[in-house]
From TrEMBL:
The keyword Signal applies. This is Lipoprotein. The keyword Signal applies. InterPro entries: Put_metal-bd (IPR021655). It comes from the Bacteria. Residues 1-19 form the signal peptide. It comes from Corallococcus llansteffanensis. Keywords: Signal.
Amino acid sequence: MMKMKRIALGALLSLGLMACGPMEEPTPEPLFEEQDTQALEASCTSLGTGITTHACVHSGNPTDHLARTASATRTTSAPAISTKHKAYDLALPSGAEGSVTYVPATTGSYAFYRTQNVPFTVINGSTSATVAVALSHTVSSSGCSLVYVSVHDLTAGTTYIVATGPASGNALTVVPEFLDDSRTRYYQDADGDGYGNSATSVYTACTPPSGYTTQRFDCNDTPVSGVGINPGATEVCGNGIDDNCDGSQC
Ligand SMILES: [Ca+2]
Ligand SMILES: [Ca+2]
Ligand SMILES: [Ca+2]
């Protein structure tokens, strides 16, 4: 009898663990999204797949493309590439640098994805100061023509000159993205069961720290002992534990 009970318990626990499954909930429920603009975190080492996929959608969609003939000089009257959710196909001067302008609607961090890793300088049109690169790295996304991205902290209403090139073929496609449009909240998953602690989270457009997940509501995130306890687990009657985190036992 005891043996049967143990087998049944084991089977139920297995079912519970199976139910946890891979963490694939694509869209976490909104909770903290309505918050102030957030600059790129110092801890960010690369942009997350969410914002990169978003940029790739624009680069892959012909109707999102706009052509711009870059100016041969760095000037605030160069053509603008400021409209959101567009892929700008720049025609650069032959074998030389060309300039366009970017006027952000909101203060914050902007990512400029592009099809070639060529010189790319963002200049404050008012002060002529070069805007520091907050982050830059290569991009590798299947089926996507974008290969490189840099992030710059920009101020709303300022006209920035984007000087880039020379580029192969005298052409470069640039997809600007506002980081705040693509942030995701990730929850710490200390026990690694795919469900995070709702109280400990980061809201970022970057690759999340290891051990974070988009799923939350783990009511016991204690390493080892909390592994079988989460919203995906099957409730086991009589074990004194709220296995599925619904606030009650059976
Ligand atoms: Ca967990
Ligand atoms: Ca857990
Ligand atoms: Ca329960």
